[in-house]
Amino acid sequence: MSQMPQQAAVSKCPSCEEPLEPGDRFCGACGYDLSVVPARPEDSPTLAIHGVVPAPDDVDWPVARDSDGHGHPAPVHAAAELPGTDSGGSPLPPPPPAAPPSAPVAPAAPAGAPAPGVRFDRPGEPEEYPLQAPDPRLTAEPAPVPGQAPAPEPAAASGQSAPAAPDAAEKVCVACRAGRVDDDGYCENCGHAQPRERDHMEQESGPIAAVSDRGLRHHRNEDAFSVGCTALPDGAPASVAIVCDGVSSATRPDDASLAASRAAGETLLGALPRGTHPQQAMHDAILAASQAVNALADEPATAREQAPHQNAPACTLVGAVVTAGLLVVGWVGDSRVYWVPADRTTPPARLTEDDSWAAQMVAAGLMSEAEAYADERAHAITGWLGADAYELEPHTASFKPDRPGVVVVCTDGLWNYAESAEEMAEAVPLDAAARPLHGARVLVGHALDGGGHDNVTVALLPFPAPSQGAGSA
């Protein structure tokens, strides 16, 4: 494998992550030989998966930005030549109503609003992620029936009068079923913390769907997603999915993932109908997401909240755009995209390469894949979105599958339990293309059954994009 000097490859030591200066040959902290670090693979290839299917010719797309930025045409490869594949607009569509008109839900906090109190408080909740049901892991009491006035709690022995029943438009405590829920998410009557809407989120938009879950070990869900459908200028359908994973060691990772997913999704859904090439649109969407996350570090609330040793808000991002004959992926970080053909006798593939310590060790030939991912440093990421990122290198690639299948876009909370392409294909239900929401639920369940050590988020997009999926969902 070709190699290049460290200063042209990475900006910090792949062994101890010490920042490096241009021209360093050895790490000043641990003495690591930087000459063994390989060059970062070129992005923006157009790949054929098991053959070539012509891309739609009716859309007058501008030329997509090539990886070198100098207008040189992107090479065409076989699928196995992509690093990692052999590892064994318009606004977002309106959300489904969370409650009938008789019991409207209080408006959610605006995106990017600072979380009240300490850093572990719940952030503002996204309107496009309606709460499906109270999380049984947090409360055993059922939520009140919409529109039904809850019975007030008996008066206290001290003679105090019982709290007045909240208005129909206010949130009602799921525990005492009488108290009003304050802005911090606690009942003003009994003090019970309410289930957070981001603990479990589901959304179906036309032929695509996504599910996100807090998992079994984390105190909150730091993942976020954005899904939607639109149409190209010639009327052909296009499906979009963005999945973001907050960096837990950073400040407000949940806000970062939410801001990034919204910005990227809105950018894609706005650019594709204007005729922007999907690969160029994906590149621009990652830049927009980066700007949205960077802006969080400038907020006064963040400056007051975070101590000097804390990092700025950060997250990873992975996304996919599916049209009638083209599949485009983009990523920064260690979330992944998998290709699972409908015909399971043909091989699946992983379409992204992690920005992680483990991936660098494998690429450098210093460790086998099994050894690298068994190391405690395996999931240390080398690329992310955030104001403290050393550099931003959006990765994009386009593919032309020759048969139908399902595109799996997920965080490491899922692929930790189905790492190779073959394992992921085994976990994806056979009817996932026809029932994407069911398939996404099954995959989240697979991760929870495996231990649920991390937040789990997955989006499923059938390929090619079905015609009935065009337009807003």
List the helices and strands and how they pair.
Layout: E1 46-48, E2 76-78, E3 200-205, E4 208-213, E5 223-231, E6 237-246, H1 253-271, H2 278-296, H3 300-305, E7 314-322, E8 327-332, E9 336-341, E10 349-350, H4 357-363, H5 369-374, E11 385-386, E12 395-399, E13 405-410, H6 412-415, H7 421-427, H8 436-449, E14 456-463
Parallel strand pairs: 1-2, 1-12
Antiparallel strand pairs: 3-4, 4-14, 5-6, 6-7, 7-8, 7-11, 8-12, 9-10, 9-13, 13-14
String of helices and strands? EEEEEEHHHEEEEHHEEEHHHE
> What is the subunit organization of this protein?
single chain
Gyration radius, in Å: 23 Å
Query: Which descriptor suits the 3D outline?
Result: globular
Unreliable stretches (pLDDT < 50, length at least 5) are 1-8, 65-92, 98-161, 469-473
Helicity range of the residues?
10-25%
Let me know the number of strands: 14
Gap between N and C termini: 46 Å
Would you write up a description of this structure?
- With 473 residues, this protein is α+β, with helices and mostly antiparallel strands.
- It is 17% helix and 17% strand.
- It has eight helices and 14 strands.
- Strands 1, 2, 5, 6, 7, 8, 11 and 12 form an eight-stranded mixed β-sheet that branches. A six-stranded antiparallel β-sheet has the order 3-4-14-13-9-10.
- The N terminus and C terminus are likely disordered.
